[in-house]
């Protein structure tokens, strides 16, 4: 199982920045910004690096708040299984820029394009955006298109 970080930047006006994946795992889907840990990198260091690489924003460890630890499992496809640390950044520096991997766009919280995201996102992301901590397991079909099961716990912070 690989380890990943995922960051959802939130603007001062309360909008969420998502990126449309242009290549690789999850191509065509809207998501936060993140990816796999490299070497002995920490989850936090990975989150900072990935946000810089994918959308050009600078975040510091103090600007990231951990709201989720999720295990994403794919039936009969272990190569895609991963544990993800989910962060919100309400403070950051820079202007979002398109990268080779992601096309960024701001969305109002009531206009998040859940139809074009991973199917489980509509279940757990609203809790994270409400500043609830989430943990648990999400099981997808082998190709990731069907949500088979969720076992999630939420706690208020």
UniProtKB/TrEMBL annotation:
Domain Nudix hydrolase: 1-130
Broad EC category: hydrolase
EC number(s) stated in the UniProt entry for this protein: 3.6.1.56
Annotated protein name in UniProt: Oxidized purine nucleoside triphosphate hydrolase
Organism: Megasphaera hutchinsoni
Subunit structure: Monomer.
Molecular-function GO term, any one: dATP diphosphatase activity
PANTHER family listed in its UniProt record: 7,8-DIHYDRO-8-OXOGUANINE TRIPHOSPHATASE, OXIDIZED PURINE NUCLEOSIDE TRIPHOSPHATE HYDROLASE
Alphabetic keyword roster: Hydrolase, Magnesium, Metal-binding
Record-linked Gene3D superfamilies: Nucleoside Triphosphate Pyrophosphohydrolase
GO biological process, one term: DNA protection
Cofactor(s) this protein cannot do without: Mg(2+)
């Amino acid at each position: 199982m690989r380890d990943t970080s995922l960051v959802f930047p939130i603007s001062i006006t309360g909008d969420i920045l998502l990126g449309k994946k242009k290549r690789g795992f999850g191509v065509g889907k809207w998501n936060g910004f993140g990816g796999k840990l490299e070497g002995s990198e920490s989850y936090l260091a990975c989150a900072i690096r990935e946000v810089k690489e994918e959308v050009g924003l600078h975040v510091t460890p103090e600007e990231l708040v951990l709201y989720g630890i999720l295990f994403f499992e794919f039936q009969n496809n272990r190569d895609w299984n991963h544990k993800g640390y989910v962060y919100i950044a309400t403070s950051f520096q820079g202007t979002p820029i398109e990268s080779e991997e992601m096309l960024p766009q701001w969305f109002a919280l009531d206009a998040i394009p859940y139809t074009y995201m991973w199917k489980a996102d509509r279940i757990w992301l609203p809790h994270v955006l409400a500043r609830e901590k989430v943990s648990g397991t999400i099981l997808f079909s082998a190709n990731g298109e069907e949500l088979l099961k969720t076992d999630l716990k939420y706690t208020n912070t």
